[in-house]
Design a protein that fits this description.
single chain; alpha/beta; NADH Oxidase; 2 domains; 6-stranded parallel β-sheet; 4-stranded antiparallel β-sheet; elongated; Nict_dMeBzImd_PRibTrfase; cobalamin biosynthesis
Length: 559
């Protein structure tokens, strides 16, 4: 066995350290080894932070203990629970040196070959750096322990790390006090055995990609039924009221009955899905709020504290939250649908927001999510969104797909006013001018799209296929509908536009779509709130059609 093999085999996740100091030259040599690690596209994105302060170490340890307790509660195995309790990780304070290995997301704002297709590339490069540091320390007679059970948002907050810096974890460095019999710690504790050999499978066949046909015109699932439509209209007109006197309620009742193909339509298991993602264009100051608000609001949704939670509870609507591409690693036990494509799109000011592969994934995931909802028996679905910067994305897509000037498609978004609004408009205009790609839908969506917007568009198409009532929220969801309608114009038959947003471009978009909104309450919150607020009106339309007496049954004379 070569000397390198010995180093590789003896590299361990060290958990206990002696009090011996670590010489500066040892750390310098290890960090240089990390710097020599492969870096995709030479992004040079890895960043290091050294910690020697006892005060900082204690703060990190307390954060670990708090989060470790939550991790312990996730297992029902008493033996594993005891092992978790034993992981106090004294090493955080015990080790002479703490090291944070992180990657800098901001390098993606400058084009480098190899990074356009994957925001994760820089993260993988930093993992390579961590391994090199580990091997260098092992060769020098030192050890390193990786602490990953952390609340990373709090971790960044207490250490005042910039928004663009994403830590892989906290690493303890020092002289190992335990050799674990040359075994990983969990193996020595008989928790889990490491396999004897690597698991490797040879792939011999190629599976053809399922390519979305963007020119697809989906045919109606059933032929037009003139007799059914005549009977439905007669039922509406025979109610004890002057013809047309219930206005929009009559239109809604007719539409629901037509979608569900029954004279007695009933909304079953109504659902609203909020898709959340981050946008690279947000790094250019197009929003009044920092990007981290996306993550914070998703946390608020999960805790039940947002407006959409309140309105869904009020109207007994099932609410689901989708991580379509938030720039954050949520805990695996979060009550969240994981459809993450990447940690946010890239900035479309100079490069494509996503690759065509990522675009295809968005369509696949959006469809899959809605198909699963349909399988629960739900026949009514509303769509909401959350993402700092997504009004900018929606504005550009609206301009490209409608032919309207960008000036008519830009609004306040999350509170942008006056000079900031002009700056936002100028940035988006420049982004469109910089685009030299094809004027085809697929290329435009990949270059300017947002993960949540595309997944919503795909979800709407799936809802149509499943004969569901589609509730469209405000400006951003209406842009998603615009995309869906370019693929299948018949989708309009199933769509209800719940309100006209205070976002100035929404009224123009509704006019373009020939859509009449149910409400006009100056809403511009998003989250699907317009869908939830309009829902009682749909129930009123359902009730009048199903329960209101006819002239004949009530013995009332017609006109």
């Amino acid at each position: 066995m070569s000397y390198l093999d010995d180093i590789l085999k003896s590299r361990r996740d060290t958990r206990h350290f002696t009090a011996d100091e670590v010489p500066d030259e040892v750390i310098e040599k290890a960090l240089q080894a990390g710097h020599w690690a492969p870096s995709v596209g030479l992004t040079d994105a890895t960043r290091y932070f050294i910690i020697k302060s006892n005060k900082v170490k204690t703060a990190v340890k307390n954060l670990f203990l708090d989060y470790n307790k939550k991790a312990e509660e996730l297992t029902d195995n008493p033996e594993q629970k005891e092992h978790y309790k034993s992981l106090k990780l004294e090493a955080i304070e015990e080790a002479p040196i703490g090291l944070i290995i992180a990657y800098d997301r901001s390098v993606l704002n400058q084009f480098t070959i190899g990074t356009v297709g994957s925001n994760e590339a820089v993260k993988f490069s930093s993992v390579c750096a961590a391994q090199n540091i580990w091997l260098s320390l092992t060769e020098q007679g030192y050890g390193m322990g990786w602490v990953s059970i952390l609340n990373y948002h709090q971790f960044k907050k207490i250490l005042d790390l910039p928004d663009n810096i994403e830590p892989l974890g906290y690493f303890c460095i020092g002289k190992p006090a335990t050799n674990y019999d040359n075994q990983p710690m969990l193996q020595q504790l008989h928790w889990k055995q490491k396999s004897e050999a690597p698991i490797c499978t040879e792939i011999k066949n190629v599976t053809e990609d399922v390519v979305l046909d963007f020119d697809l015109k989906i045919e109606k699932s059933s032929e037009s039924k003139p007799d059914f439509r005549r009977l439905l209209q007669e039922k509406i007109d025979s109610k004890t009221k002057p013809i047309g006197s219930l206005g929009t309620l009559e239109t809604l009742a007719y539409q629901m009955a037509t979608i569900f193909e029954t004279l007695n339509p009933k909304i079953i298991n109504p659902s609203i899905i909020v898709f959340a993602a981050d946008h690279g264009i947000a790094n250019h100051g197009v929003s009044a709020y920092p990007q981290d608000v996306t993550r914070q609001m998703v946390g608020n949704f999960l805790e039940g504290g947002a407006a959409i939670n309140v309105f869904c509870n009020q109207n007994e609507i099932k609410l689901s939250i989708v991580d379509a591409g938030v720039n954050y690693d949520f805990p695996t036990n979060a009550n969240l649908i994981n459809a993450k494509i990447a940690k946010g799109t890239q900035s479309f000011l100079h490069i494509p927001a996503m690759s065509e592969t990522e675009l295809q994934l968005c369509f696949e995931k959006g469809k899959s999510i809605v198909d699963e909802v349909a399988q629960t028996g739900s026949n009514c679905i509303g769509f909401g969104e959350m993402g700092i910067g997504n009004t900018s994305t929606a504005s550009v897509l609206m301009s490209l797909l409608t032919g309207l000037p960008i000036e008519d498609c830009v609004g306040k978004g999350t509170g942008v006013e006056n000079e900031k609004l002009s700056q936002k408009q100028d940035i988006l205009k420049k982004a469109i001018e910089n685009y030299s790609g094809q004027a085809e839908l697929k290329q435009q969506l990949a270059y300017f799209g947002g993960f949540e917007i595309i997944q919503i568009a795909s979800g709407m198409l799936a809802a149509y296929d499943n004969k569901m009532l589609i509730l469209v929220d405000g400006f951003i969801c209406s842009v998603a509908f615009l995309i869906a309608s370019k693929i299948n114009p018949d989708i309009k038959d199933n769509a209800l536009f719940c309100h006209c947003s205070a976002e100035k471009a929404h009224d123009k978009l509704l006019n373009y779509l020939g859509a009449k909104p149910i409400l006009n309450l100056d809403l511009r919150l998003g989250e699907g709130t317009g869908c939830a607020i309009a829902f009682p009106i749909l129930k009123s339309a359902e009730a009048f059609l199903n329960d209101m007496a006819s002239f004949e049954s009530a013995g009332v004379s017609r006109k």
